[in-house]
Design goal:
- This protein has five helices and six strands.
- By secondary structure, the protein is an alpha/beta fold.
- The chain has two domains: 81 residues; 112 residues, RlpA-like domain (Barwin-like endoglucanases), CATH 2.40.40.10.
- The longest helix is centred in the N-terminal third of the chain and has 38 residues.
- The termini are far apart.
- This is Expansin-like EG45 domain-containing protein.
């Protein structure tokens, strides 16, 4: 098959089919076929073969970029439809931030002290009392990417103080940063002590 036919087939495949791998295969076949064809015709054809190969590779790059943009748009649309509501994009991104943290410290920083929280109500309103709130340390706060998500926290029973963290799984809303907490948790309620906990970050 001539180079022109291979390139036309690759172009038409890109337009008609969303399969990026198939487009790449045809473009690669075209470039290899043309390069070998000119190389066999003697040294005088090598420069022409190299120029042709560069041109084909540039076309290949354009096809790949277009395919990536198309696939990316389809993924974004799917995320927004599945999440729903005005926070659709935010919810879809947050879904990727779910993880578990074990054997870290939980402390208390006082009831109502989240009124000027770092998150500023991002994602969910804070202070309505429906879910108790917490501040996370910088290792898990992700520069605010988890604002408006929740943690499910469980006390291990180990620690010191007068108010141990419940050993039953309890939901808390993430709405603040505790700069000195590392991977730990600071609860916005009255209490005393430093207690070991496990928690995982999830949607509310």
């Amino acid at each position: 098959m001539a180079f022109e036919d291979l390139f036309t087939k690759a172009r038409d495949s890109h337009i008609q089919s969303p399969t990026e791998d198939h487009t790449h295969e045809l473009a690669a076949t075209a470039s290899l076929h043309s390069f070998l064809s000119f190389s066999k015709q003697g040294p005088g054809k090598v420069m022409k073969a190299q120029s042709l190969l560069i041109a084909v590779l540039l076309c290949w790059s354009s096809l790949a970029a277009a395919a990536a943009r198309r696939l990316g748009g389809q993924a974004s649309s799917s995320e927004e439809q599945s999440a729903g509501g005005s926070f659709a994009g935010m919810s879809a991104r947050r879904h990727l931030l779910q993880y578990t943290v074990n054997n870290v410290d939980a402390t208390y920083y006082g009831q109502g002290n989240d009124a000027r929280s770092w998150c500023k109500g991002n994602g969910r309103p804070y202070g309505d009392g429906s879910i108790p709130t917490v501040a996370l340390g910088p290792n898990t706060f992700n520069n605010g990417a988890v604002c408006g998500q929740c943690i499910i926290m469980t006390g291990t029973g180990r620690g010191a103080g007068f108010n141990p963290v419940s050993t039953s799984p309890t939901k808390y809303l993430i709405n603040n940063l505790c700069p000195e907490c590392g991977s730990g948790v600071d609860m916005a309620k009255n209490g005393d002590g430093r207690w070991q906990v496990d928690y995982y970050i999830t949607s509310c």
